[in-house]
Amino acid sequence: MTIGSHIESFFGLELEQFDTSSGIKNESLALRIEVDWEAADEGKTILSILEAVAADPKAKDISALIIGAWEEAFETGIQPLIDLLVQQKGVFTSLKAVFFAEMTYEENEISWIQQGDYSAFWPAYPQLEHVQIRGMEGLSLGEFQHENLKTLIVETGGLGTDVIQHVANANLPSLEHLELWLGDENYGWDGSVDDIAPLLNVERRPSLKFLGLKNSEIADEIAGLLATSSLLSQLKTLDLSMGNISDKGAEAILASADKFRHLSKLNLAHHYFSDDMMGKLSALAIPLDLSGQEQYDDGERYIEVSE
Fold first, then answer.
1. Which string of DSSP letters, residue by residue, matches the chain?
2. 158-199 pLDDT, tens per residue?
């Protein structure tokens, strides 16, 4: 599966598509900007559109911004937009949520999206609560800390261990929702379960309630790691969906079943469980998502989103 549709809401808000001819109409909505193929052919750039947003009198009241497709995103990175947001931090004083590179596979495959360096972005926006990033090519979160960030989502077809290390080292005392799409080694994933372990440091994640280690080709090993983690006890939702988890991972969960029974939800959608194992998991008597039972393809197990 690939990402075939755009989000319909963001940060709990309905969306407004920004139009340079009319400006911001409703500053209480989440504002979306993009450059489609037709606009790109006419010479429009996403940078000029973001500049127009910054020049709008209502920009100071925008709380949520979605940056969609831009011209030639498979070879032109998002760095100029990150830099402009940093420069215009005095304008976007109400900004609390940003989605960087919200685009479908028709606009750009997830592993082709050219990302950027977010090091200067974090200190420029201390009021941020939600940051969502799609794409891995050229991505760097930097060595960062943030007092108010509640949600961090990084969606990739293959996440580099340098980014995982940045997240593990980050001081994020308010973080409640952490979601990482780990991906496939053919598209950028270069780690092991040992690289995941530092993410589970309880002292660095005192507020974490939702942990998503998704879209992973080492889902079995991650399930085993979580079964022995002290972080598990403070979670309400554990999301291991979109990966290639099999009966081996399920056995690790069942062997430590008492540690999982407090969860409000355990998401295991897109899996390779046998019918028998699905029955055993269902007996845990916790809310489970076991949708998307996949079949082995010549002994291979695939994740949901890679290219």
1. ----S--SEETTEEEEE--TTT--S-TTSEEEE---HHHHHTT--HHHHHHHHHHSGGGGG--EEEE---TTTTTS-SHHHHHHHHHTTTT-TT--EEEE----TTT--GGG-B--B-TTHHHH-TT--EEEEE--BT-B--S-B-SS--EEEEE-SB--HHHHHHHHH-B-TT--EEEEEEE-GGGT----HHHHGGGG-TTT-TT--EEEEEEETTHHHHHHHHHT-GGGGG-SEEE-TTS--BHHHHHHHHHTHHHHTT-SEEE--SBB--HHHHHHHHTT-S-EE---B---BTTB---S---
2. 999 999 999 999 999 999 999 999 999 999 999 999 999 999
